[in-house]
Amino acid sequence: MRFGWILLLSAGLACAQTAPKPESGKRYGRVVIRNAMVIEGNGAPVSGPMDIAIVNGTITDVVPARGRRIPAGDAEIDAAGKYVMPGLINVHAHVQDERAGIPQPLDYELKIWLACGITSVRDVGSDMKKTLQLRADSAAGKVASPRIFVYPMFNNAPTPKNAEEARAKVRQFKAAGVDGIKIVGTYRDVMEGLLEEAHKAGLPVAHHGGVGETTAWDDIRLGTTSIEHWYGIPDAAIDGGVQNFPASYNYLDEADRFRYAGHLWREANPKRLLDVLDGMIKASVAWVPTLDIYEASRDLQRAQTQPIFKDYLHPTLEKYFEPNLANHGSYFVNWTTTDEVFWRENYRIEMDALKEFGKRGGLIGCGDDAGFIYQMYGIGLIREMELHQEAGFHPLKVVQHCTENNARILGQQMKLGRVRAGWAGDVIVVNGNPLEDFKVLYPKIGPTGGGVEWTVKDGIPYHGPTLMKDVKDMVAKARAK
Question: Which of 202, 251, 256, 480 has the most CB atoms around its CB within 10 Å?
């Protein structure tokens, strides 16, 4: 009997040894990852080495590698000395196939997302019909893409002018099959109609507030799902209710808008700000700060000279980044040292508020808003993680922000954001320890360094370096034209 068990064990080991490595982009019925150090995504410490089985797109086993030997897979990844964590979720992203009317390959964005370990994306405002089709194609494995959650832009024409028109537009979105709604700052009565109907329809709402009559207090009262960036939070804590704008201020002039946005956090009353944060927590309003997207405001030279731009910045995006007030976010016209100093202070105060929000129990998410302001797709989300750590969060909490917390914001916490049996087979294999250095998540673009070796989305393995080679070739061809 004992001899029989030895034979079975030997056969299992032989199968494991002969199982092929995955082919990038190919769907397998059973993928096995061996000997991984696992970051589950729930804030708990690392465990390992572990073996992980993904069967038909679902994690079925996460077990100690030195214990029960799980059967071989159709393809296997040896993760010895490597770390496995949940696929990153980007809850503030834009599906873009053009910039300022100039075409840009959608494949460019999708492949960088996957190479950076992003397995799910909440698209907050794009061409709804195109993105719904992309969502379907991604789910069917017809295109190399993260999972897509479609949140169309509520304010796009025809823009609702009153509460009833707002309700009607929500019903139209629901009928189209969207996952949620993105709203930019609007009138209070319109926002009331929108949120009332969205709650009936079961559609979450992401709110990018503007400098207008609605603030975080409206999000708290009406039950918004998440506040994007930070507009509306410090505004709600200003004594007198209005920022100290100069008489010449013009909100539609982005040089004005972003220059004086850098003065906003200093004007918030600290005591009232705590009341706002507590109100958000009580009402379950999440905060997606997108710290990365404004970083150029505090250090323009760093933003303009990122090493990855050399081989991987598409010329369409490069052109869009150039200072030009006709392009949203390209506001660096006569940007000064004084502007950067104000923005550095802005970051210090905001990061303190974000840390306090988390400490008090607030739900913090991760998004990068890339495609604007010198931020490349995917690269921006990893930079966002570094900035969350700068704000004072332990790396384990930062990972949780970008995985489990983001799944909660999407209402997918029982499916996404964890390396756990029963959850979707969305994991990444990293060459290095991201808890020691988030820079190991950046794509491996040289002969040495870290990088996400494998991004497994829905059980389909994608090889990070192969994807980035495709991106490099794409950029070279576009530049040659």
Answer: 256
Query: How many CB atoms sit inside 10 A of residue 99's CB?
Result: 20
Q: Which DSSP string do the residues of 12-24 spell out, in sequence order? A: HHHHHHHSPPPPT
Structural domain of residue 76, as residue ranges?
A: 21-86+420-465
CATH number assigned to the domain comprising residue 393? 3.20.20.140
pLDDT range class, residue 18, cuts 50, 70, 90: low
In the three-class reduction of DSSP (H, G, I as helix; E, B as strand; rest coil), residue 208 is classed as strand
* pLDDT for 196 beyond 80: yes
Quick one: pLDDT at residue 372? 97
Q: Mean of the pLDDT values across residues 204-227?
A: 95
Q: Clarify whether residues 170 and 82 are in a common domain.
A: no
Cα distance between residue 398 and residue 118, in whole Å: 15
In a domain, 479, yes or no: no
The answer to whether position 6 is within a domain reads no
Tokens of 127: 């061409």
The answer to whether residues 397 and 424 belong to one domain is no
For residues 81-110, average pLDDT = 97
197 in Cβ contact with 170 (< 8 Å): yes
Token pair for 428:
């990444």
Amino acid identity, position 402: C
Judge if 295 and 353 occupy the same domain.
yes
